[in-house]
Write a structure and sequence with these properties.
It holds the Pfam family Na_Ca_ex. The chain is mainly α. The chain is built from 13 helices and four strands.
Length: about 400
């Protein structure tokens, strides 16, 4: 069955083009307040457009390739932004890569995971995902974080939280190889570990009626035909089984996804002077700018993950969360390591004591969340609390 033709001139096709035009005319300029607000509105529209086109591509290529496309596309552009800002120098440049990567790990592992688990558990009673695939992803994130963000704090070849050139080269190669090994596992050898888990599959209630899982993990009869829950579930199922887009529509969405992501990062850079001024005005440390920029850049993954959780596809949310964290480390560190040959000044990658505590807590709590393969609102609340602690301590160290 062919998918119905879609009009070309929709807001999802117009907004990315408008955003690029706005970025070109505002990039590198000092903007008055009205234009800063306008750029923020266009930035929000670009995020929404990116999520839409990512979902179109994901529907065509299937999981886990769809999640991988969005995570890698965002991270590649994020890396370009980090290198550009680091090369420009200024206060906080030596720690910019560390602050941005650590913020990405905390936002994905606690923010995206926590929001997804909360939405799924509130809407469907229980958030169910594949423990094998999610556990492998978490282990990879923890190893990458330890190699690149923890070890520099304790090595002795260089003073301060800095790798020697040989150590930095080893961390870069190890990060790239480990990320490549994970992608191979996710997309080829064990792809089934990263596919959504059917909730209550094979279970049946009285007279053969299907059942749903309650928050306590018990079987409950399916919703009555015509009820609000039944309509919502049927709508999700119809969305999952809708005919995939054509090759032409997929290529168009892929191109517009890249355009949207370029616009998101470019407009975030345009907004960065206003963000820096706002951060300084309220007395926050300069490193908080990296947190705000990471929040903006990761907005497409966050929205896509929450929408997947709403459809009870929590595994897709987990793929996006941990995939983005891995891509952020596995792609950023090698590029920064290569760029350090011509970048002036030190490259401080090691975390401070407060950040180390938050990272250890995140890894421990994430392991306890992932191992059972299902989670409730309590686990979601724990992750969101850790995210709140990270943001609060970044603003008030």
């Amino acid at each position: 069955m062919a998918s119905p033709a879609r009009p070309l001139l929709t807001w999802t096709t117009v907004v990315p083009v408008v955003a690029i035009v706005v970025m070109v005319f505002t990039f590198g300029r000092e903007l008055p307040v009205p234009l800063v607000v306008l750029v923020a509105v266009v930035l929000a529209g670009s995020v929404l457009a990116a999520v839409h086109h990512a979902e179109v591509v994901a529907h065509r290529v299937g999981e886990p390739f769809g999640s991988l496309v969005l995570a890698v596309a965002v991270t590649v552009i994020e890396v370009a932004l980090i290198v550009t800002l680091t090369a420009s120098g200024g206060e906080g440049a030596p720690e910019l890569a560390r602050d941005t990567v650590f913020a990405a790990v905390m936002i994905t592992s606690n923010g995206i995971v926590g929001l997804s688990l909360m939405v799924a558990s509130v809407r469907h009673g229980l958030a169910v995902f594949n423990a094998e695939g999610t556990g492998a992803a978490l282990a990879t994130v923890a190893t990458l974080s330890g190699l690149t963000l923890v070890l520099p704090t304790f090595t002795t070849s260089r003073p301060g939280p800095e790798f020697s050139p040989a150590q930095l080269a080893f961390a870069a190669v190890a990060s790239l190889l480990l990320y490549g090994a994970f992608v191979l596992t996710q997309t080829v050898r064990h792809r089934d570990f990263f596919l959504p888990v059917p909730v209550g599959a094979g279970a049946s209630g009285p007279a053969g009626r299907p059942v749903h899982r309650t928050a306590a993990g018990d079987d409950a009869p399916a919703a009555e035909p015509g009820s609000e829950r039944e309509v919502a579930d049927r709508g999700d199922d119809e969305d999952d089984h809708a005919p995939p887009p054509t090759n032409r529509a997929t290529l168009l969405s892929l191109a517009l996804l890249l355009v949207s992501l370029v616009a998101v990062v470019g407009l975030a850079k345009v907004e960065s002077p206003a963000i820096e001024s706002g951060v300084a005005a309220v007395g926050f440390p300069q490193s908080f700018v990296g947190v705000v920029i990471a929040l903006l850049v990761l907005a497409p993954e966050t929205l896509a993950a929450v929408r997947a959780a709403r459809r009870n596809r929590v595994q897709i949310s987990m793929n996006l969360a941990y995939g983005s964290a891995m891509a952020s480390i596995g792609l950023t560190i090698p590029v920064i390591a290569a760029a350090s040959a011509w970048l002036d000044g030190p490259l401080n990658l090691g975390l401070g004591p407060t950040q180390l505590v938050l990272l250890v807590l995140t890894v421990a709590v994430s392991a306890l969340t992932v191992v059972p393969g299902r989670a409730t609102r309590l686990q979601a609340a724990v992750h969101l609390t850790l995210l709140a602690a990270f943001v609060f301590l970044a603003a008030s160290p």
